[in-house]
Amino acid sequence: MKRHSWIEKDDIMTLYIYKFGLQNIPFNKQDIANKIGVSVGSLNFRIGNFKAIEGIGKATHFSKLSLQIYNLYGHTKENELRSLAFDL
After folding, report:
1. How far apart are CA 47 and CA 1, in angstroms?
2. What does the alpha-carbon distance between residue 85 and residue 36 come to, in Å, rounded to a whole number?
3. CA–CA separation, 13 vs 58, rounded Å?
4. In a designed cystine with 49, which of 7, 25, 59, 66 is the match (CB 3.0 to 4.6 A)?
5. Could you write out the three-class secondary structure of 27-88?
6. pLDDT bracket for residue 60 (50, 70, 90)
7. Element holding 15 (H helix, E strand)
8. Are 53 and 62 in contact (CB under 8 A)?
9. Structural domain boundaries in the chain
10. Do 16 and 29 form a contact (C-beta atoms < 8 A)?
11. Quick check: pTM over 0.85?
12. Residue partners of 13: CB distance under 8 A and separation at least 6
């Protein structure tokens, strides 16, 4: 399987899930993984990037893109981030 090249929109969706969960969107993790083009496992791993950025868990490495997205959108309100992530 070809390795996925993560883009800004992918990480914005992932950041939304990390910060706010799935309860306020009409998608589950599988739907979002399909939109991005990765497995649910890869999506979970990417969520781990945001945990690592916040110093949560055992992971200490994260992608530069995830850090960039976190710095840009990490304090964005839920409804605004949802709109950016999912065009809702």
Report:
1. 21
2. 11
3. 23
4. 66
5. CCHHHHHHHHCCCHHHHHHHHHHHHHHCCCCCCCCCCHHHHHHHHHHCCCCHHHHHHHHHCC
6. confident
7. helix 8-20
8. yes
9. 19-86
10. no
11. yes
12. 32, 35, 36, 85, 86
| Residue labelled with tokens 């868990």 | 57
Q: Considering the chain, what is the average pLDDT of its residues?
A: 94
Closest by CA position to 51, among listed 37, 63, 34: 63
DSSP state of 4: P
Structure tokens at 11: 């990480």
CA distance 70 to 8: 11
Residue 64 has a CB neighbour count (10 Å cut-off) of 7
pLDDT for 58 beyond 90: no
